[in-house]
Specification:
It is a single chain. This protein has about 475 residues and is of the alpha/beta class. The protein folds into two domains: about 260 residues, Rossmann fold (3-Layer(aba) Sandwich); about 180 residues, Glycogen Phosphorylase B (Rossmann fold, 3-Layer(aba) Sandwich), CATH 3.40.50. It contains 19 helices and 18 strands. A nine-stranded mixed sheet has the order 3-4-5-2-1-6-7-11-12, with helices on both faces. β13, α12 and β14 form a beta-alpha-beta unit. α5 packs across α7 and α12 packs across α17. The protein starts with a strand and ends with a helix. About 50% of the residues are buried.
Length: about 475
């Protein structure tokens, strides 16, 4: 099969969240199963020169977008055996950052149209175009409205993956015509509650829609989770699929990770404690092997459950635990955790920002990894924590529900709680602390966690089956 994977970000080139990890890892996993899979993304200024300097120019062409005709240059670079196309337009992409600009609607409408226009000019004719989130949700729309009648596009099937439905690409009504360039007869495709909604259009026009976990696919039928799109999703439930994300086990590997103080494996993690000591020393904590270290690597935003952590923090500090956090986001949470460092010196370590090397040291050095999310479409952090032997404590929602089973039952690999309540979260932490105090029990838990397999193997197989079924239709 031939798959073109369109994404607004992809690791290692440019990353703001989990979408980049999926774009970077899933495509390699599909390619490793002997399918032709290529990636296309914008040529941002933020992409490092070490990649740009090795890119090869392929072709340039003009992209019609409403009343505009915009230049697009195509460059290519192969990473991990996967060919990546980078679409160049300095007006749209030569700026610092990738999202949050006044003209994001036009920028990603251009990118979506350019992805399809590129197919005329390259030596790769995909059978599947796989779009991701609102930034590329116009690809299925444009495919059906402008390209479906052409020979190169007649048999192409489209897939749209919703990584987080909270972000939908909602804009003013005029955007669908002036910016997106849709004809009047197709304007209703993007119409939603008298606004323009890119994601809504993509859901309706794609041949298949996926989410990043089975539980999240079910949750999106509920208005509480769907951010207004539940009726649209229920109407299109027949083409919905929940496929769990994985992680790259070559990249996230405690046996070879150069970012951690001491390498170890599931068969021999006797030296894992050296990473705990290193983390404690570097974060200003008292180096105690007997103190349970709770780690968090997260965006500091409300839906990550940080209000539960704030509410319960004083009770948490009554326990013999230490707390480490890496993240950036809302000022109220940044201030709270900075204040906690001053109040609980030697027991709380916080770094505001993001540092991939430090994140890995937290995974390798913490005993427990806390994710009390209000919503979590899939979550990758709990999977990385398992890989490094940090036991997840999570709320049962989305992908957390699909991946973490409580040690109190069969097939346990962590601790979970159901209701969005600070004291239910504390109860799960109390149970973890009890087991931590029993050395043999905790060693069993760590070994069990590290033996879990959430690599891309099974998930890539699910996507491949989806692609095959679409092509066969």
């Amino acid at each position: 099969m031939k798959i073109l994977f369109a994404s607004s970000e992809s690791a290692p080139f440019v990353k703001s969240g989990g979408l980049a990890d999926v774009a970077g890892s899933l495509t390699r996993a599909v390619r490793n199963r002997m399918h032709a899979c290529r990636v296309v993304l914008p040529l941002y200024s933020d992409i490092a020169d070490l990649y740009k300097d090795e890119m090869k120019f392929v072709v340039d062409f003009s992209v019609p977008l409403g009343w505009r005709n915009q230049y697009c240059g195509v460059f290519e670079y192969t990473y991990g055996g996967v060919k990546h196309y980078f679409l160049d337009n300095e007006y749209y992409f030569r700026r610092r950052g990738i999202y949050g600009f006044f003209d994001d609607a036009e920028r990603f409408a251009f990118f979506s149209k350019a992805v399809l226009e590129m197919i005329h000019h390259i030596d790769f004719k995909p059978e599947i175009v796989h779009a991701n989130d609102w930034q590329t949700a116009l690809i299925p729309v444009y495919l059906n409205v402008f390209y479906r009648h052409l020979d190169n596009f007649r048999n192409i099937k489209s897939v749209l993956t919703i990584h987080n439905i909270q972000y939908q690409g909602m804009f003013d009504t005029a955007v669908r015509f002036d910016v997106a360039g849709l004809p009047g007869s197709a304007g209703n495709i993007l119409d939603f509650n008298k606004d323009t909604n890119f994601l809504k259009g993509g859901i309706e026009q794609a041949d298949a829609v996926t989410t990043v976990s089975p539980a999240y696919a079910d949750e999106l039928m509920d208005p509480w989770y769907a951010h207004g799109l539940d009726a649209i999703l229920r109407d299109n439930q027949y083409k919905m699929n929940g496929i769990l994300n994985g992680i790259d086990y070559m990249d996230y590997n405690p046996e070879t990770d150069v970012n951690i103080a001491q390498n170890y494996s599931a068969s021999d993690f006797s030296k894992r404690g050296e990473n705990k000591k290193d983390l404690q020393m570097s974060m200003g904590l008292e180096p105690r092997a007997d103190a349970m270290v709770i780690g968090m690597v997260t965006r500091l935003v409300g839906h990550k459950g940080l209000d539960l952590v704030k509410e319960a923090f004083w009770k948490l500090m009554e326990m013999d635990v230490q707390f480490v956090l890496l993240g950036t986001g809302d000022w109220q949470y940044e201030k709270f955790f900075r204040d906690a460092v001053a109040q609980y010196q030697g027991r709380v370590g916080v770094t505001i920002g993001f540092d991939d090397a430090l994140a890995r040291r937290i995974y390798a050095g913490s005993d427990v990894f806390l994710m009390p999310s209000k919503t979590e479409p899939c979550g990758l952090s709990q999977l990385i924590a398992l890989r490094y032997g940090s036991i997840p404590v999570v709320r049962q929602t989305g992908g957390l529900k699909d991946t973490i089973n409580d040690f109190g039952g069969e097939f346990g690999n962590g601790y979970n709680f159901l209701t969005y309540n600070a004291y239910d979260m504390l109860d799960a932490i109390y149970r973890a602390a009890h087991d931590f105090s029993i050395e043999d029990a905790w060693e069993h838990h760590v070994r069990t966690a590290m033996q879990c397999d959430f690599s891309w193997g099974r998930s890539a197989g699910d996507y491949i089956n989806l692609y095959k079924n679409l092509i066969a239709e």
